[in-house]
Amino acid sequence: MATERKPPRGTRKRDVPLTKDGIHAMALQLIDADGVEALTMRKLAAALDANPMSLYHHVPNKDAVLRGVAHRVGSQFSAEERGGIPWQDQLRELAREFRELSHRHPKLMGYSFTRPDYVQPEDPFWQALIGILAAAKLGEEEIPRVAATLVAVFTGLLLSELNGALQRWATLSPASSGPDEEEAPPPSKDVIDTMFNSALTAAVAGVENHVARAHERV
Length: 218
Known about the structure:
The protein has 218 residues and is an all-alpha fold. It contains 10 helices and no strands.
């Protein structure tokens, strides 16, 4: 008895229609598993059981997919106002959420932090940061500059944590003892947490100082 031959992968009719949101969701799964560099449109199509050409009806190229995935992850930030607590605590809360998100998707975020277009003005994270700095009574012209500085500080810190540089730097001796010096063990998670919180405290103090100097000039 002849057996029915199945059509090649990617040519069968999908049970669920292909959508841009579905493409981004699957791309995020693949990136979390194998990293950004390993993602190709062909691999993405295979994971979706779709013809590779059908993806281009929804996304023009890999860069567009990555932008969509970054937007999908960035939208996980709460759009709700963080009122009821001082702006300093709001900033600490936002930064810690940002770090938690980075640890949930380290491969994507490690890539995204190197892109100049990573932060967009409509992003929930950016909007929340702008709102916090407005609550700190910064001048309207100063807000985007201070926000940009804070983003640069935190993305740089998180990138060095994600790629292991921060852990290595924390073990360097004040002075080299020579090539035979034994490597110190990597710092514990508690130590890295403390380092992050120290940087956060310094950032908050920096904004407080900036606000105070701005008010003195008025």
